[in-house]
Fold each of these.
Amino acid sequence: MRKSAVITIGNEILLGKTVNTNLTFLAQELANLGLPVDYSVTIKDEATAIHQALRQCWEKYDVVITTGGLGPTTDDITKQEIASFFGKKLVFNEEVWEQVQKIFAARNMPTPEINRSQAMVPEDFIALKNERGTAPGLFYEEGEKSFFAFAGVPVEMKHIFLTQAKPILEKKYGTQDKVIQRTIHTFGIAESALAELLSDFQPPENVNFAWLPQPGRVDLRFYGTDAQAIEKVFNECYSRVQTYAWGFDDDTPVSVLHRILREKKLYLSVAESCTGGLVQKMVTDLAGSSDVFLGGVVSYANEIKVKILKVKPGTLNKYGAVSEECAREMVTGVRDLTDSDIAISTTGIAGPEGGTAEKPVGMVCFGFSVHNDIWSITHIFNGDREIIRQQAAEFALLNLIKYLQGHKF
Amino acid sequence: MRKSAVITIGNEILLGKTVNTNLTFLAQELANLGLPVDYSVTIKDEATAIHQALRQCWEKYDVVITTGGLGPTTDDITKQEIASFFGKKLVFNEEVWEQVQKIFAARNMPTPEINRSQAMVPEDFIALKNERGTAPGLFYEEGEKSFFAFAGVPVEMKHIFLTQAKPILEKKYGTQDKVIQRTIHTFGIAESALAELLSDFQPPENVNFAWLPQPGRVDLRFYGTDAQAIEKVFNECYSRVQTYAWGFDDDTPVSVLHRILREKKLYLSVAESCTGGLVQKMVTDLAGSSDVFLGGVVSYANEIKVKILKVKPGTLNKYGAVSEECAREMVTGVRDLTDSDIAISTTGIAGPEGGTAEKPVGMVCFGFSVHNDIWSITHIFNGDREIIRQQAAEFALLNLIKYLQGHKF
């Protein structure tokens, strides 16, 4: 099977200032093309390091991709090193220069002279048009091997990859070695309990089996090139874990929720305290959310809970804002305010301050309203503020999903 | 100067299913300790690959860290490979086993037998206590060199690093080679325009200068080990770009906004349409947000804009929901509803559908209300739905910040 290597060039990633999301994107795309990434290295924007990484990868892999280091500014030496590694000269490319000027014209700006360097392309390389920025992508091939270089800005890299590199790769290598993946998403069972449940479950040699524990849930993945074998194992595993499964493959809590609400023609509203807007942000991450989501309230301060959501001051006094009682009043409040079919509420202690022995950091109360059913639950999450909020938002959606999957309307 | 290497072990990252945030965290921490990451490699959970990466890194670097592959499930072979690379046997560690059982006891669960493998530790290695999960960290040293292995789950890795690995590194290596970084955050000027503004600006040899273009803004970073030289260059650069600077170093739009609002004792509220809760989520990302933020409304559907925010139906009919007129009514609506000093509103087309020639995808109208000043602006963002929303939320915060930085109250 053909394999790829990705070289990420950038001091910023090695300094921890940027997260390498480019690798994630390229890895997904290349796996789907049957050219899975086998190796990835992150190096500094330095001549020796670039040279070494290119030598190591170009020798061993069919497809080598670099990202980063193609900007117009002075710290970018990648293009010179690439040209030198392949023994090519840099030559001025009129077409690229025109495209760079076009980008600036569209922004109603004159093209700064410094951008002329963007039009320098190693000879025998093909410049890949960049409509989102000034650094063209670069493509070079030697027999069966392919080399690509992209700018590090994710939106530019993705654009050039999808519009030009991907078609080149599809045409050159076909898709017969496509890696097939099937995933079961579970919720509500710990990794080790799931492992015990599957302790005597042994996939055949030609199917890879991976556990992906995430905070609060576990994904089970099967992958390889034998579609039939994968399907068989996948179904066998699913029959064992069905109770805990909420989705498959590329499903996300949000995509599953959208699908259910759209099918059942139900509208959602949300009232959030500790999650501060995150639940609603997630629900609207997907296009078409206006079909299933009306809106909601972020009632961070108690006065907002009382004034807008009609939570009773007595409830706040007696039980506190972080209580199932308050969560219930928030959820009925937002349901009535928006006239929605379904509503979710969250109120909790995201930390790091504000916890007590009785109500520790990580404790979150949830309210749910589905037609005439109203209920509330409490869960304690571990982790820092961000993880607690993220898990709480996902927990709210997954609980609603499991309820909706188990009920007819 | 001492240098580190990070080895990430995990098929999931090479398949693009997980983003490598562990590297980001470790890179920041190690740079601060004067042990900057010089090289990072991501490999499969396979014996040969693990062995090769260990050989390559252990020979060349002072500190080598692996993350991933230490779970109890069957696909984790990392610990055996580490033991074999260093020529050690795995031995059962009673203390680790007790800690694993404690973790399960705290969850009111019996300890699954499969977790006994977690208590196997290579001889001469020190097990680092994991209070967030079952896989202990591992530490080994040979003379001046240090090796660490951590589980891949970010919350566990961070916990073990901060509580145990960091003190070991501080004690062993001191902090004399600490990398010093200073960053200027700019907004409202394109990368190339900034480059022209700084075209004759040349930092000295011992100060590294990096451009970090991000969607909608550019960071300028100076780093090295000579604190005085860095400070001098930093100040010189700042005096040139002052108009566009909104913060320094670890400042984020949210941290700067919190600081200003707290200083001025002002409370914020937010009304969001296209950003769907993201602005409020960002504002509440930081602890202590209840000092500066009351809450707000996500008015995704037009009925919610009218019913809750009192946007006039006539405004929606005449100008549409994506209009400066609507943004102004949303912002005064949420201000009145919450009785806040300051308010922000967003309404736009996040895409990918819904654009027209007159109102393209990416067009977002913003409303601002600061005491008696009310204004609105329109901006067109490029990118996919996620990037448009992210940029729009940040744009809203940065515009408010630039206004507040320029006005006395």
Amino acid sequence: MAPKEPLVISNKDEMRKWSRAMRCQGKVIGLVPTMGYLHEGHLTLVREAHKHANVIAVSIYVNPGQFSPNEDLSTYPSDFDGDIRKLMSVPGGVDVVFHPHNLYDYGNDKKNSNVAIEGDKMVSCVDQGGLGHETWVRVENLQKGLCGNSRPIFFRGVATIVTKLFNIVEPDVAVFGKKDYQQWRIIQRMVRDLDFSIKIVGSEITRENDGLAMSSRNVRLSTKDRQNALSINKSLLKVKSAVEDGQVHCEKLRNLVVQCVTEAGGQIDYAEIVDQENLEKVEFINGPVVLCVAAWFGKVRLIDNMEINFKMDVRK
Amino acid sequence: MAPKEPLVISNKDEMRKWSRAMRCQGKVIGLVPTMGYLHEGHLTLVREAHKHANVIAVSIYVNPGQFSPNEDLSTYPSDFDGDIRKLMSVPGGVDVVFHPHNLYDYGNDKKNSNVAIEGDKMVSCVDQGGLGHETWVRVENLQKGLCGNSRPIFFRGVATIVTKLFNIVEPDVAVFGKKDYQQWRIIQRMVRDLDFSIKIVGSEITRENDGLAMSSRNVRLSTKDRQNALSINKSLLKVKSAVEDGQVHCEKLRNLVVQCVTEAGGQIDYAEIVDQENLEKVEFINGPVVLCVAAWFGKVRLIDNMEINFKMDVRK
């Protein structure tokens, strides 16, 4: 069978019309939200979506609402034609690619100078653009800590754009990668708290053959940094091994990561072992936790994580 | 024709199922969100909804998320049977009354002690209940000022519950009373910013024969305060008359309200003339503005407002 060419939709109303027509035909609609520049990790999300839905929409939109003005919005890579080819290579393909131009353009004649500043300079590229968008969704506890520390407006931007996409695409199922672990948990909680009728599926991390977690940002690593960045996954495996050997003291485990990544020339943003549900720090492992790491290699910030489903057996 | 008895639904999934069935039949679904204890003002909203929709849902739910622990949640009046009778009296009636028990109960086994405190004691009855709800929607600029000053968590609570109701009922049209002017503008902006596919209709203020704006809180006024509270509407009419006489200086107009209400024994919370769209204070009237008033009579806080669609004609 020839690969299926997806319908490309850029208009919100057209997107919703398609989705509503599908729903009235009894189809289950799956959404895979992406920022484009797709790699094998994204294609895994699409394959996962096929397990839960009859028709699949992939959104490709680099969301200015989750970037601070000092972050890498302008250099975020893109390759729309390549993305379409890759999506067509997945068995079953995808039905729709939703590729809007600007989801914050409300057709205002004049720019709004009333830039919403929260706290001290905590402003996204949307606020900076002055388009008058002023509604933000926050998952107040889960957005704190981990990536929330160094990217204070990030999860506000993610929760808000995902709300917008959910309201435009109206899916029944949405698939998120567990590489962005905090994001995945935030979206799950948001869906519960705001009563979206959408099942959120978490898809396991896809890695390169050498273990590096796939990311659109990987292409921006120098050859040397690309090699050094392998230390992240190596450090996770060291921790795995240490836990299997009976080490449950999180500070000790965390130090393994810091040492391994730092020795390889990386700069740790954070390395934390937290509860899988509420993402609160854990001192000793005695239940389902996740080790989350963020580190800089050159000008590129990478994240990775590993779930540890360890239950101390006191009968030993 | 016998009055139509509405279907009463308390379950979220059942509510959404009804709505989706209607949509697939091509019906336009109207929603009138209320906190119950209905009066003629609410019935006006239902009549307005009939102009825009084929089937009408009215939600009756007193939202703890918009009440501070020190506010009047526990004494908020209710009369469910009376509400149903009143809704049946409207020509065409209503199709569904959505009457959930607790929209913040997510079936957690244990209460969540992780109470989200923002700033200093800015906590709603939902946070206080410790049910673990932690996702809030804010319309950052419009929520400031006017009622936002004395009720700092109010509009966060309103925007969040309306988002929840929109996601459960999935209406095409929702009708809000312009008596809650700031709320109406906030919901309009939220719908635009979050891409809800819902038309927001503002319905004019309904008044008692003597001019008092209808409110569920009016029953809690003493006979004397009920009489004194007429000063609010009287003050609006004074301003109307002054504007017609050429007075455009907002400070002068505002003082008419303060004087009239204070002399009647009311205590002004605010009296402001603001732009109809962005709700920012205006010094001189030269375009569409709205005079918004909030005042206490005894232990009851009342609000009222009047749009002034005045355009200075420089050719005069």
